[in-house]
Amino acid sequence: MSAGYTSRVILLAFPKLGDRVSVLIRNPKLLPPSELTPQDIAVDAQGNPLDPQAANEAMYKVMANLIVAWRVYDASAPAAAVTIDLDADPEALAEQLDALETVDQTLMTDITAENVARLPMAIINRIGEELAKVADPS
User: Fold this and answer.
1) d(CA 13, CA 24)
2) Alpha-helix residue ranges (DSSP H) falling in 74-135
3) 119-126 contacts, C-beta under 8 A, 24 or more apart
4) I want to staple 120 with a disulfide (CB 3.0 to 4.6 A). Which of 32, 75, 87, 105 is the partner?
5) Tens digits of residue pLDDT in 60-88
6) Who wins on pLDDT, 132 or 1?
7) Alpha-carbon gap, residue 121 to 109, rounded angstroms
8) Is the dihedral of CA 39, 44, 45, 46 positive or negative?
9) Does residue 15 have a pLDDT over 70?
10) Per DSSP, what are the bridge partners of residue 122?
C-alpha cells in the first residue's frame, strides 16, 4: 500500500465522442487553492470579465494544469475537403456523410492551454464539472 491520498486522479471517459477518447486529471479536491485559482483578470462592477477571451484563457491554463494525460482530437481542425451533394438521393447522401466520418482527425499530444481551447465543449464542460465539485462538494 502506498502512502498518500487516495483517488489522486480521475479518468474522464467520453464514449459518445469516440473510441478511447478520455482525459485523466488530477483530483481537484486534493489540490491546493493556488493550483485551481485562475490568474486575475479585469472585471466590471457586476463581476463580469471585461475581456471574456482572457477569462477563457485563464481557465484553460487551470484545466491544462489539471490534466495528466489525454487521448483527444483537435475539434478546431477544419474538416477534410469532402464534396457533399445535398441534392443527392438519401442513400447517396448517407454514403457521402459516412465518408466524411472516416476522415482521420488530428490527435493532440501536448497538454497546453492552447490545446485545451481546441477541445470539444463536452470535454471542457466535464472538466469544469469536476472543478465545480470543489466549490460545492455536496
Assistant:
1) 8
2) 90-101, 113-116, 121-135
3) 119/72, 119/75, 120/17, 120/75, 122/14, 122/16, 122/17, 123/12, 123/14, 123/17, 123/21, 123/23, 123/72, 124/63, 126/12, 126/14, 126/23
4) 75
5) 999 999 999 999 999 887 766 667 788 88
6) 132
7) 18
8) negative
9) yes
10) none
Cα 100 to chain centroid distance, Å, stands at 23
Q: What single letter denotes the amino acid at residue 123?
A: I
Q: Measured between alpha carbons, how far is residue 124 from residues 38, 62, 131 in Å?
A: 15, 12, 11
Question: Does pLDDT of 26 surpass 90?
Answer: yes
User: For residue 84, what is its C-alpha cell?
Assistant: 457533399
Q: Half-sphere exposure of residue 110, counting CA atoms within 13 Å on the CB side? A: 5
Measured CA distances, 83 to 3, 70, 88, 101, 102 (Å): 57, 32, 11, 13, 14
User: Beta strand 9-13 with 107-108: parallel, antiparallel or unpaired?
Assistant: unpaired
To the nearest 10 degrees (0 to 180), the angle between helices 121-135 and 52-66 is: 80
The identity of residue 37, as a single letter, is T
